[in-house]
Amino acid sequence: MDMLGDGVDVADKAPDVDVDVKKDTIEVDSVVKAVDNLALSDDESGDENAEKEGAYLEMCPEVQKRVQALRKNQKDILQVESNFYKEIHQLELKFEKLYHEKFDFRKSIITGSHEPTNDECDFPLGRNVDEPLSAVQDTQGKEKKEGFITGIPTFWATILQTVQPICTLVEEQDIPVLAHLMDIRCENTSEPLGFKLFFGFSPNEFFENDVLVKTYVLKNDPDPESPLTYDGPEIISCEGCTIRWKEGKDTTISVVEKKQKHKKTGTIRTITKTLKRDSFFRFFSPPGLPLIHSHPILNVVMMIRYLFLDPADQTKEGTNEDEEDDIIDTLNLDFEIGQALRERIIPRAVLFFTGEALEDDDDENDTDYATDSEDDEGEAAESVDDDVDEQGDQRTSH
Fold it and tell me: What is the dihedral of CA 302, 304, 305, 307, to 10 degrees?
């Protein structure tokens, strides 16, 4: 018999309550059974996962009612989260002017329209460099001699060629064009909710545009039909712009000449064929699909899109599973690049140019890999232990 600290028998302190033990045991057993169903392993079939998702429906009515209340409470929690992100967006709009003042100064140095004074350079040249200002010549107001380098050449081109995941888009034929990229800017929008990326170019021999624009539309409110799937603001669509390429300068296509021989006469003619090719500037021509989500739901969107097409129309459009997968991959990468430019690269451009931000990314990746490696080693050790135990059991059984 359990005793309290003062030596009093617990049973003497227990209140006289008439408890239906059998009924309570049944209810507890039903809860335990439902919890066991929830604990099914992740590698089981879809049917078993579906059963797991609705396992709480097997609980007694009283528990179901409480779960129902928690689900409704979760909807309210997600609405608070949605309002939080709306306030964050308003703060972004409020501080955008201050950001742009600093970005304008950055642009003036990159393009060479402003030569920084020694006071404006009063900062170490690198993490482990403490360069005295006396060693930096002040060129403010002085006549520029022949061969004088203006601004910071290929500042943005260097970033785009070295930073993941954007560098995966840059092809060799893009590099001379990107040398004319003078500025990248982001502006937030409220109607519709989203942001725009502006790529400013100096006059060049490749296209007539001064600015190329990429627009992203965000969705921040929970879906009324599925409010519990809300996971913060998400990109639901994007739109590029028309690049007015000068003749023969389009980096997104290649022109191939092919000779054909007439079967009867034997005469030969030369035909010209235009083929698409990979290019960074395809970033401004994203697939024009109505999107709902930027990741797994895209698969559902694609299925819905083709569900209403009869097989003849699908064949006519030349659609197949591989093409759908390519579109999904392209859009996922597109959204990833848009967010990377907005959140990391534009605000910290000089750190990506110097490589300091790249080093930080590498350190994070190394840490992740080390963690994975350690996990693998742990799993391997457990596997060895299991093998030893099994061998021991076998020896014992013999």
Answer: 120
